Here is the input.
Amino acid sequence: AIEQARRAAEGAERLPSRAGMGTVAGNLTEAALALPVSNLPALASLMASKPALAPRVRQALDDGAPGLDEIEKAFGNYLSAEQAIGRVAADVDTEAFALALVSAVHRLLHRYSPGGPDHAERVRRVVTALATRMTPSDSQGGGTP
Here is the structure.
């Protein structure tokens, strides 16, 4: 679980370098879909069946292992970079949007099951809904989300 979180955080940390490229929604969707889903149900079952693991994982996170906080920060940094170049509205609270996006995707990850609802499509819908609210209005000289 810790290794997966580390890889996911490293991937998310590259997101701010995408500012100004593609679309905001496209970049966020790509980063969100890169978060691991395939064995999350197995990890959740393992954590539930071995309660002693939870405090160890919490301790690892407290000791500096990357987790959702780092992923959220990377998404926020990306949105702030896009805001600085005018692709995200100036009045958008980028930290709040990053929290909303990462929280929604995290929930979808926990609901993932092979053969279940299309995970990628659900992530795209969430990202698109949030990105649409971040778009600068025409009067602000905005662009495509």
Observations:
- The longest helix spans residues 68-84.
